[in-house]
Amino acid sequence: MNDIEKIGYLNNDFEMFHIIDRQRREFAFHYHDFNKIIIFISGNINYTIEGKNYTLKPYDIILVNAGEIHRPSILDNTTYERIIIYVSTQFLKNYSEQDYNLNYCFERAKSEHSNVLRIHSVEKSKLYQVCLELEQSFSDQAFAKELYQKILFLEFMIQLNRTAISNHINYLDSTIGNAKLVQILDYINEHLVEELTIDRIASHFYLSRYYLMHFFKEETGYTIGNYITEKRLLIAKNLVQNKTPITEACYQSGFKNYSTFYRAFKKAFHTVPKNSQLID
């Protein structure tokens, strides 16, 4: 496995998959440069996101922000079934106005320090019914198929955000697999755009450089350097999409060398940085 692995590519505003694993699989830690919604249907699963662990129940909704490292751990041979939706971060930004913000559910998940919504009887809700209609639309060849899919997807996101705003849900508490790892991840993300070296992180946590590097790789599957680079690239991508000049985006996202930034950006996103809208 590479030190860091990006899985899945999104060439549309959103994509949807219904996946059933009838045999136990192993998943590596990975990330996406788009947001991910998972409606968990069945299985015996422990889901890890950025060092936090969640034991799932049927119809839990998992919200994974772009760039968050995560993986499911399948605990036995029970069938693992889920609906997965990829959604472009830029698409959600395009539907963020004063009166509504379709990215709210992801933002609130961050503020609640929880990636999992547990909703009473979600399988009977309008949210789930719209989800099923959206899934059905992908196999439908009727008139204005793509337009209808977009309308259904927007309705799904509206229902999801209305649910997130309501007080009739629980943001699931996580169990901390390793409290030190969560502290390190939080520290890195708080200081991404600063001069951030392994020595600085090790000194802050009173750890040896070697121990920190080994510990981080063992717990996440990432090297610290690659983790920091990928997080900075996502910041840079957001800046470029919002018309920040390329050189400014480079330095504002924490890179100190433009040529290093340029090569990393091209490798990660399969395009050179330019001030036109990128595909998430």
From TrEMBL:
InterPro entries: AraC-bd, Homeodomain-like_sf, HTH-like, HTH_AraC, RmlC-like_jellyroll. The keyword Transcription applies. Keywords: DNA-binding, Transcription, Transcription regulation. The keyword Repressor does not apply. Gene3D superfamilies: Homeodomain-like, Jelly Rolls. It comes from the Bacteria. One of its GO terms (molecular function) is sequence-specific DNA binding. Residues 182-279 form the HTH araC/xylS-type domain. Pfam families: AraC_binding, HTH_18. This is Helix-turn-helix domain-containing protein.
